[in-house]
């Protein structure tokens, strides 16, 4: 169940009034069975099953929250009734009356999968291709009023209509053959907007974002996929700026930076129309990123937009980075006072290695997840694991997301820190312990397996790395204590060093080592060079 499977046109398991054309195949994913022609005229990507599963889970929880306000209770197949347990041993009369009142106000209307709900969500898939995602919405997400599956290709639109009929969801799913942007612009009216808009283009979604932030309803949900990771990860900063209004830079934190770039772009486009975004979940997986944001209207809140964005100062030598907010806001009684930001937060050269800084951004500098919402999605998926084929992977990603530090943008990687000063990579657990013993917060990141998110300043991180390398040039007592927390050097390594001491051929002295060619050399002139940044770090 819920696995991707391909059958021939002689598939006997599916009973439908729609007959298969010669050479057609049936692709099964989740509860949907999608017809595909023999020629590759309509795009299908089986790798993104995780993306579609996660989207179904997020929209289900979004529908549960939104429809509860409209007096509708959603029912998910295979999901057990959620029981709220009171931790107090005694309940007074007021509590009992409150519970009875809440029980009396429970929604009388229920919404199940595959049925049309008059007060349900209106969903648009702007770039539907075969319509697989939309068919899965109709079959697996309860509380839907309508699903519009749009594609500019006439062949794709015809296939969407056939797939809707083949799966028996024609009463919910309507095929559309229009330009996605024009369709969304046509639905900008308050009463015509969609509750959920899903955009999963082949490449960049930048040309659809302006229409999307206008066509989504108040408090509605935008689900955006970006597959142009090369642009957003720093390979082409000027192209990234032209598409998203942000300069990407090559760095180890490029995957999270890509998430924050698309959130910045969405917020900037929404601010033009006095709207603002609230990120629910942002994930970087494989070769793409996926963000889920709610869009609201509010002129007063839009004024906070500048203070939510930040520029990045990234050292080209050691990789240390600093963020500079674009604006300031502070509370002045009942009102907020706004002012221009002051900076920069760094000098002309890096204080740790003496190299220059790259300037990137602006990026979204606020939290990229709504942890209470993520916890609800995680609880629903873990409580009903048979619902999705990729449930285990969803649980793993969301569990990591719930443990991430909310207010710490970007991250370091221990392998890049070790590479900078040419030493062995410290165990991730011990490096985290060192930061915790030093009094800083620390967590991992779902975007990179070797990532460390911490509120420790770069100086503290390099202190720990110098202690790990155990250089004689370093005598910071605080960091030496941290080094003891790292466990010191293992006895095996000490024995190995004694065994091979003075056994190397053509030994190089420290003075020669400082002028040794390195990829981090900074050329001053054709005949003059400066020592590489790693020695500047070690000599501090």
UniProtKB/TrEMBL annotation:
It catalyses: guanosine(26) in tRNA + 2 S-adenosyl-L-methionine = N(2)-dimethylguanosine(26) in tRNA + 2 S-adenosyl-L-homocysteine + 2 H(+). Signal peptide: none annotated. Its EC number is 2.1.1.216. One of its GO terms (cellular component) is nucleus. Coiled coil: none annotated. Keywords: Methyltransferase, RNA-binding, S-adenosyl-L-methionine, Transferase, tRNA processing, tRNA-binding. GO terms for biological process: tRNA N2-guanine methylation. This is tRNA (guanine(26)-N(2))-dimethyltransferase. The gene is TRMT1.
